[in-house]
Amino acid sequence: MRHLFLIPGCLAAGLALSACAEKSGDTVERAFQDVNVVDETNLNDVMLTVADPNEAVDYFSRAVKTKPEKTELQRGLAKSLVRAKRNTEAVAAWSKVLGMAEATDEDKVDLADALIRNGEWDRAKKTLDTVPPTHETFKRYRLEAMVADASREWSRADSFYETAVGLTTRPSGVLNNWGYSKLTRGDFSDAERLFGDAIRQDPTLFTAKNNLVLARGAQRNYSLPVIPMDQTERAQLLHTLALSAVKQGDVTTGKTLLREAISTHPQHFEEAVRSLRALETG
């Protein structure tokens, strides 16, 4: 009979051990789920920064098919499409993100960015108009400035550019855009100043250097500015200055500058050679 009394005790012990095993298994499973979440987040970040843009699109396309309800994955797909320069698809992807419950004001700004890249300026303006004024970010004001530029609302554009410059520690790009806006308006001296500011912020920004030379050429100032440049850049800038001189009707000066560009370039400067040949024969 004593053995019979032992049976319930053994059963109880067995059930307790079984419960412990189940709890342990649940804990391990939750731990693995947590690790998977961290790994997925890290992989998402990698795909959005260093991965090939089209590979990132493929990755997020697969991910949203598995978990279409996850806003972060839909957002990752939209960002990847922008990186891959698939702008029409990016507009559709960002529009889908905005239809989700977790959409933010920054998502509206990103949709406006995609619309601008796709040449849909009116829709971009309407989208930015829905962003509350309390959402003050560099990207928002940079896009507002570009939209105002496209509408030839110069005072608004200047105001937005100025605000954008104050909201970033790397303003070279927006200073260059602002300068180009001034250049298209015919405000050459202001454009020259802004391009110079852009170069001081980023001495490697060749686009600003080229634009600076265009602004000087438009004022019939055919000397190169004192800015950082290597030999190849110097030749290219001389070529730009030469074409600007020709456009102003100063053909003799243009020829001289082209010859200097050809002799300055460390290799054969075919584009300048063709330009000079065209002037000399025609």
From TrEMBL:
Secretion signal, residue range per the UniProt entry: 1-21
Q: Which domain of life is it from?
A: Bacteria
Alphabetized, the UniProt keywords read: Signal
* One matching Pfam family: TPR_16
Q: Does the keyword Signal apply?
A: yes
Q: Check the record and name the PROSITE patterns matching this protein.
A: PROKAR_LIPOPROTEIN
**InterPro entries documented for this protein:** TPR-like_helical_dom_sf, TPR_rpt
Q: What is this protein called?
A: Tetratricopeptide repeat protein
Q: Which organism is it from?
A: Antarcticimicrobium luteum
